[in-house]
Give the backbone structure.
Amino acid sequence: MNKSFQPQRRTVLKRIVQYSALGLFTLLSPLAGSLMQSTQAVPAKVINLAYQSSGDIVKSKKAVEPRFRALGVTVNWVGPFAAGPQLIKALNEGKVDIGNVGETPPIFDQAARPGLIPEVVYLTGRTPTDGTNQGIVVKANSAIKKVADLKGKKITFQVGSNAQYLLTKALKEVGLKISDIQIVALTPTEARDAFIQGRADAWVGGDPLLAAVESTTPIRNLRNAAGINTLGGFYIGRRAFVTQNPQLVRVFLEEAEKVGEQAEKNPSDYAKILVDEQKLTPAVALKVASRRTYKLRKITPAIIAEQQRVADFYYDEKVISRKIDIKQGILSDLEYKAIIPANIK
Protein backbone atom coordinates (compact mmCIF):
# COMPACT_ATOMS: atom_id res chain seq x y z
CA MET A 1 0.00 0.00 0.00
CA ASN A 2 2.85 2.35 0.80
CA LYS A 3 4.44 1.48 -2.50
CA SER A 4 1.31 2.40 -4.48
CA PHE A 5 0.88 5.66 -2.53
CA GLN A 6 4.41 7.00 -3.12
CA PRO A 7 4.07 7.67 -6.89
CA GLN A 8 0.69 9.33 -6.35
CA ARG A 9 2.05 11.57 -3.61
CA ARG A 10 4.99 12.55 -5.76
CA THR A 11 2.64 13.39 -8.66
CA VAL A 12 0.43 15.55 -6.43
CA LEU A 13 3.41 17.34 -4.90
CA LYS A 14 4.89 17.95 -8.35
CA ARG A 15 1.64 19.54 -9.56
CA ILE A 16 1.41 21.70 -6.44
CA VAL A 17 4.92 23.00 -7.09
CA GLN A 18 4.14 23.61 -10.78
CA TYR A 19 0.92 25.50 -10.03
CA SER A 20 2.56 27.45 -7.22
CA ALA A 21 5.42 28.45 -9.54
CA LEU A 22 2.94 29.45 -12.23
CA GLY A 23 0.98 31.53 -9.76
CA LEU A 24 4.12 33.13 -8.45
CA PHE A 25 5.23 33.95 -12.01
CA THR A 26 1.81 35.45 -12.75
CA LEU A 27 2.00 37.58 -9.63
CA LEU A 28 5.54 38.71 -10.39
CA SER A 29 5.05 39.35 -14.13
CA PRO A 30 4.02 43.01 -13.74
CA LEU A 31 6.92 43.53 -11.36
CA ALA A 32 9.31 41.83 -13.77
CA GLY A 33 7.99 43.97 -16.60
CA SER A 34 8.45 47.14 -14.61
CA LEU A 35 11.96 46.07 -13.67
CA MET A 36 12.78 45.46 -17.33
CA GLN A 37 11.35 48.84 -18.24
CA SER A 38 13.37 50.51 -15.50
CA THR A 39 16.56 49.19 -17.06
CA GLN A 40 15.70 50.68 -20.46
CA ALA A 41 17.90 53.59 -21.54
CA VAL A 42 16.75 56.90 -20.11
CA PRO A 43 17.25 59.82 -22.55
CA ALA A 44 20.34 61.79 -21.64
CA LYS A 45 19.90 65.18 -19.97
CA VAL A 46 23.27 66.44 -21.22
CA ILE A 47 24.79 66.14 -24.68
CA ASN A 48 28.57 66.64 -24.94
CA LEU A 49 29.53 68.10 -28.31
CA ALA A 50 33.17 68.35 -29.35
CA TYR A 51 34.77 71.14 -31.32
CA GLN A 52 38.26 71.63 -32.70
CA SER A 53 40.47 74.69 -32.53
CA SER A 54 39.91 75.20 -36.26
CA GLY A 55 36.35 76.27 -35.45
CA ASP A 56 32.88 74.74 -35.59
CA ILE A 57 30.00 76.47 -37.31
CA VAL A 58 27.33 74.64 -35.28
CA LYS A 59 28.88 75.93 -32.09
CA SER A 60 29.47 79.41 -33.51
CA LYS A 61 25.86 79.79 -34.61
CA LYS A 62 24.44 78.27 -31.41
CA ALA A 63 22.36 76.24 -33.81
CA VAL A 64 21.32 73.35 -31.57
CA GLU A 65 20.80 74.96 -28.18
CA PRO A 66 17.15 76.05 -28.68
CA ARG A 67 16.01 72.59 -29.80
CA PHE A 68 17.74 70.82 -26.93
CA ARG A 69 16.57 73.39 -24.40
CA ALA A 70 12.99 72.60 -25.41
CA LEU A 71 13.70 68.92 -24.75
CA GLY A 72 15.18 69.64 -21.33
CA VAL A 73 18.68 68.72 -22.52
CA THR A 74 21.77 70.79 -21.69
CA VAL A 75 24.35 71.33 -24.43
CA ASN A 76 27.93 71.07 -23.21
CA TRP A 77 30.59 72.05 -25.75
CA VAL A 78 33.87 70.24 -25.03
CA GLY A 79 37.12 71.61 -26.47
CA PRO A 80 38.81 73.08 -28.28
CA PHE A 81 40.67 69.97 -29.39
CA ALA A 82 43.89 70.44 -31.33
CA ALA A 83 42.78 67.95 -33.99
CA GLY A 84 40.78 64.78 -34.67
CA PRO A 85 43.00 62.32 -32.77
CA GLN A 86 42.65 64.31 -29.55
CA LEU A 87 38.90 64.54 -30.05
CA ILE A 88 38.55 60.80 -30.54
CA LYS A 89 40.58 60.12 -27.41
CA ALA A 90 38.06 62.16 -25.42
CA LEU A 91 35.21 60.28 -27.08
CA ASN A 92 36.68 56.94 -26.07
CA GLU A 93 36.99 58.25 -22.51
CA GLY A 94 33.28 59.08 -22.46
CA LYS A 95 33.84 62.85 -22.35
CA VAL A 96 32.39 63.47 -25.81
CA ASP A 97 29.22 62.19 -27.49
CA ILE A 98 29.41 63.68 -31.00
CA GLY A 99 32.26 65.27 -32.95
CA ASN A 100 33.48 66.17 -36.42
CA VAL A 101 36.74 64.69 -37.83
CA GLY A 102 38.53 63.89 -41.07
CA GLU A 103 38.77 60.45 -42.66
CA THR A 104 41.98 59.38 -40.91
CA PRO A 105 41.42 59.63 -37.11
CA PRO A 106 38.74 56.89 -36.90
CA ILE A 107 40.98 54.55 -38.90
CA PHE A 108 43.98 55.09 -36.65
CA ASP A 109 41.80 54.65 -33.56
CA GLN A 110 40.36 51.37 -34.80
CA ALA A 111 43.80 50.08 -35.78
CA ALA A 112 45.10 50.87 -32.29
CA ARG A 113 42.41 48.72 -30.61
CA PRO A 114 42.77 45.18 -31.97
CA GLY A 115 39.99 42.80 -31.04
CA LEU A 116 37.68 45.55 -29.76
CA ILE A 117 34.44 46.74 -31.31
CA PRO A 118 35.07 50.44 -31.96
CA GLU A 119 33.33 52.86 -29.63
CA VAL A 120 33.58 55.38 -32.49
CA VAL A 121 30.70 55.05 -34.96
CA TYR A 122 30.16 56.91 -38.22
CA LEU A 123 27.02 59.09 -38.18
CA THR A 124 27.15 61.04 -41.44
CA GLY A 125 29.64 62.00 -44.09
CA ARG A 126 30.59 65.57 -44.92
CA THR A 127 30.69 66.86 -48.47
CA PRO A 128 34.30 67.01 -49.71
CA THR A 129 36.15 70.24 -50.45
CA ASP A 130 38.07 70.94 -53.64
CA GLY A 131 41.31 70.34 -51.74
CA THR A 132 42.58 73.92 -51.77
CA ASN A 133 42.14 74.24 -48.01
CA GLN A 134 45.09 71.89 -47.36
CA GLY A 135 48.63 71.68 -48.60
CA ILE A 136 52.21 70.52 -48.33
CA VAL A 137 54.09 73.80 -48.16
CA VAL A 138 57.66 75.06 -48.05
CA LYS A 139 59.14 78.53 -47.72
CA ALA A 140 59.22 80.47 -50.97
CA ASN A 141 63.04 80.52 -50.95
CA SER A 142 63.38 76.79 -50.18
CA ALA A 143 65.54 74.58 -52.39
CA ILE A 144 62.67 72.07 -52.29
CA LYS A 145 60.84 72.56 -55.59
CA LYS A 146 58.66 69.48 -55.83
CA VAL A 147 57.26 66.66 -53.70
CA ALA A 148 60.05 64.30 -54.76
CA ASP A 149 62.56 66.70 -53.17
CA LEU A 150 61.06 65.95 -49.74
CA LYS A 151 63.04 62.71 -49.46
CA GLY A 152 65.06 62.80 -46.26
CA LYS A 153 63.60 66.15 -45.18
CA LYS A 154 61.92 67.12 -41.91
CA ILE A 155 58.18 67.45 -42.39
CA THR A 156 55.91 68.54 -39.57
CA PHE A 157 52.22 67.67 -39.23
CA GLN A 158 49.60 66.17 -36.93
CA VAL A 159 50.12 62.41 -37.01
CA GLY A 160 46.87 60.47 -37.36
CA SER A 161 45.03 63.30 -39.11
CA ASN A 162 44.04 63.89 -42.73
CA ALA A 163 47.34 65.78 -43.10
CA GLN A 164 49.06 62.40 -42.92
CA TYR A 165 46.78 61.02 -45.65
CA LEU A 166 47.58 63.94 -47.96
CA LEU A 167 51.32 63.55 -47.36
CA THR A 168 51.37 59.76 -47.73
CA LYS A 169 49.35 59.86 -50.95
CA ALA A 170 51.44 62.69 -52.39
CA LEU A 171 54.66 60.83 -51.62
CA LYS A 172 53.34 57.66 -53.25
CA GLU A 173 52.54 59.65 -56.40
CA VAL A 174 56.28 60.31 -56.81
CA GLY A 175 57.46 56.86 -55.74
CA LEU A 176 58.27 57.66 -52.10
CA LYS A 177 57.00 56.30 -48.79
CA ILE A 178 56.34 57.97 -45.46
CA SER A 179 59.46 56.19 -44.20
CA ASP A 180 61.51 58.22 -46.70
CA ILE A 181 60.99 61.46 -44.77
CA GLN A 182 61.69 62.60 -41.21
CA ILE A 183 58.42 63.06 -39.33
CA VAL A 184 58.18 65.95 -36.89
CA ALA A 185 54.97 64.99 -35.07
CA LEU A 186 53.22 68.04 -33.61
CA THR A 187 49.71 69.42 -33.18
CA PRO A 188 48.52 71.62 -36.08
CA THR A 189 49.39 74.89 -34.31
CA GLU A 190 52.74 73.61 -33.08
CA ALA A 191 53.53 72.30 -36.56
CA ARG A 192 52.81 75.69 -38.10
CA ASP A 193 55.08 77.38 -35.58
CA ALA A 194 57.89 74.88 -36.15
CA PHE A 195 57.69 75.48 -39.89
CA ILE A 196 57.70 79.27 -39.59
CA GLN A 197 60.61 79.14 -37.14
CA GLY A 198 62.66 76.96 -39.51
CA ARG A 199 62.61 73.82 -37.36
CA ALA A 200 61.10 71.83 -40.23
CA ASP A 201 61.68 71.87 -43.98
CA ALA A 202 58.02 71.53 -44.87
CA TRP A 203 54.62 71.65 -43.22
CA VAL A 204 51.41 69.81 -43.99
CA GLY A 205 48.51 71.91 -42.78
CA GLY A 206 45.03 73.15 -43.47
CA ASP A 207 42.70 76.07 -42.90
CA PRO A 208 42.38 78.29 -40.98
CA LEU A 209 46.10 78.03 -40.18
CA LEU A 210 47.07 77.60 -43.83
CA ALA A 211 45.07 80.58 -45.05
CA ALA A 212 46.57 82.76 -42.32
CA VAL A 213 50.14 81.71 -43.18
CA GLU A 214 49.46 82.30 -46.87
CA SER A 215 48.66 85.91 -46.03
CA THR A 216 51.73 86.57 -43.87
CA THR A 217 54.57 84.31 -44.98
CA PRO A 218 56.04 83.78 -48.47
CA ILE A 219 55.39 80.07 -49.13
CA ARG A 220 54.95 77.65 -52.00
CA ASN A 221 52.33 74.91 -52.00
CA LEU A 222 53.99 71.79 -53.45
CA ARG A 223 50.74 69.82 -53.49
CA ASN A 224 47.27 70.60 -52.25
CA ALA A 225 44.64 67.96 -51.52
CA ALA A 226 42.81 68.14 -54.85
CA GLY A 227 41.96 64.60 -55.86
CA ILE A 228 43.37 63.13 -52.65
CA ASN A 229 41.17 63.99 -49.67
CA THR A 230 37.96 63.05 -51.41
CA LEU A 231 35.80 61.94 -48.47
CA GLY A 232 35.30 65.24 -46.71
CA GLY A 233 35.32 63.76 -43.23
CA PHE A 234 32.60 62.56 -40.89
CA TYR A 235 30.43 63.29 -37.94
CA ILE A 236 31.20 60.53 -35.48
CA GLY A 237 29.50 59.50 -32.28
CA ARG A 238 30.07 57.50 -29.12
CA ARG A 239 28.37 54.16 -29.73
CA ALA A 240 26.70 53.88 -26.32
CA PHE A 241 25.30 57.41 -26.53
CA VAL A 242 24.08 57.06 -30.12
CA THR A 243 22.28 53.75 -29.58
CA GLN A 244 20.64 54.96 -26.36
CA ASN A 245 19.73 58.46 -27.57
CA PRO A 246 18.87 58.27 -31.27
CA GLN A 247 16.33 61.09 -30.99
CA LEU A 248 18.96 63.50 -29.63
CA VAL A 249 21.43 62.55 -32.36
CA ARG A 250 18.71 63.13 -34.95
CA VAL A 251 17.98 66.61 -33.58
CA PHE A 252 21.67 67.53 -33.65
CA LEU A 253 22.19 66.33 -37.23
CA GLU A 254 19.04 68.06 -38.46
CA GLU A 255 20.16 71.42 -37.09
CA ALA A 256 23.77 70.91 -38.21
CA GLU A 257 22.57 70.33 -41.78
CA LYS A 258 20.39 73.46 -41.68
CA VAL A 259 23.21 75.73 -40.56
CA GLY A 260 25.60 74.08 -43.00
CA GLU A 261 23.30 74.72 -45.92
CA GLN A 262 23.01 78.38 -44.93
CA ALA A 263 26.79 78.71 -44.63
CA GLU A 264 27.38 77.30 -48.11
CA LYS A 265 24.91 79.79 -49.55
CA ASN A 266 26.38 82.73 -47.60
CA PRO A 267 30.01 82.05 -46.64
CA SER A 268 30.49 85.74 -45.86
CA ASP A 269 28.18 85.38 -42.84
CA TYR A 270 30.40 82.69 -41.34
CA ALA A 271 33.49 84.69 -42.28
CA LYS A 272 32.34 87.46 -39.94
CA ILE A 273 32.26 84.96 -37.08
CA LEU A 274 35.73 83.67 -37.95
CA VAL A 275 37.13 87.19 -37.68
CA ASP A 276 36.20 87.26 -34.00
CA GLU A 277 36.67 83.60 -33.09
CA GLN A 278 39.87 82.85 -34.98
CA LYS A 279 41.30 86.39 -34.89
CA LEU A 280 41.59 86.41 -38.69
CA THR A 281 41.55 89.38 -41.01
CA PRO A 282 38.31 89.73 -42.98
CA ALA A 283 40.04 88.68 -46.21
CA VAL A 284 41.56 85.55 -44.67
CA ALA A 285 38.29 84.69 -42.91
CA LEU A 286 36.40 84.90 -46.19
CA LYS A 287 38.98 82.63 -47.86
CA VAL A 288 38.59 80.07 -45.07
CA ALA A 289 34.79 80.20 -45.19
CA SER A 290 34.78 79.89 -48.99
CA ARG A 291 37.15 76.90 -49.05
CA ARG A 292 35.22 74.91 -46.43
CA THR A 293 32.22 72.66 -46.97
CA TYR A 294 29.43 72.26 -44.47
CA LYS A 295 26.63 70.07 -45.83
CA LEU A 296 26.23 66.50 -44.65
CA ARG A 297 25.48 63.28 -46.50
CA LYS A 298 24.21 59.85 -45.56
CA ILE A 299 26.61 56.98 -44.99
CA THR A 300 26.25 54.92 -48.16
CA PRO A 301 27.90 51.71 -49.39
CA ALA A 302 30.04 53.87 -51.69
CA ILE A 303 31.29 56.02 -48.80
CA ILE A 304 31.98 52.92 -46.70
CA ALA A 305 33.93 51.39 -49.58
CA GLU A 306 35.96 54.57 -50.06
CA GLN A 307 36.78 54.78 -46.35
CA GLN A 308 37.83 51.12 -46.49
CA ARG A 309 40.16 51.95 -49.39
CA VAL A 310 41.76 54.68 -47.27
CA ALA A 311 42.27 52.19 -44.43
CA ASP A 312 43.70 49.58 -46.81
CA PHE A 313 46.05 52.19 -48.26
CA TYR A 314 47.42 52.97 -44.80
CA TYR A 315 47.94 49.26 -44.17
CA ASP A 316 49.60 48.66 -47.54
CA GLU A 317 51.94 51.60 -46.89
CA LYS A 318 52.75 50.17 -43.44
CA VAL A 319 51.41 53.28 -41.72
CA ILE A 320 49.08 51.12 -39.60
CA SER A 321 50.17 47.67 -38.48
CA ARG A 322 46.98 45.71 -39.01
CA LYS A 323 44.16 45.49 -41.51
CA ILE A 324 40.84 46.76 -40.21
CA ASP A 325 37.19 46.42 -41.21
CA ILE A 326 35.49 49.81 -41.42
CA LYS A 327 32.07 48.17 -41.14
CA GLN A 328 32.74 47.56 -37.45
CA GLY A 329 32.12 51.28 -36.98
CA ILE A 330 29.00 51.32 -39.14
CA LEU A 331 25.54 51.25 -37.57
CA SER A 332 22.69 49.04 -38.72
CA ASP A 333 20.12 50.26 -41.27
CA LEU A 334 17.52 50.56 -38.50
CA GLU A 335 19.89 52.59 -36.35
CA TYR A 336 20.64 54.97 -39.23
CA LYS A 337 16.94 55.29 -39.93
CA ALA A 338 16.44 56.42 -36.33
CA ILE A 339 19.13 59.11 -36.38
CA ILE A 340 19.22 60.51 -39.92
CA PRO A 341 16.72 63.35 -40.50
CA ALA A 342 14.93 63.91 -43.79
CA ASN A 343 17.03 66.96 -44.72
CA ILE A 344 20.23 64.88 -45.05
CA LYS A 345 20.44 63.15 -48.42
User: Anything to note?
Assistant: The longest helix spans residues 2-38.
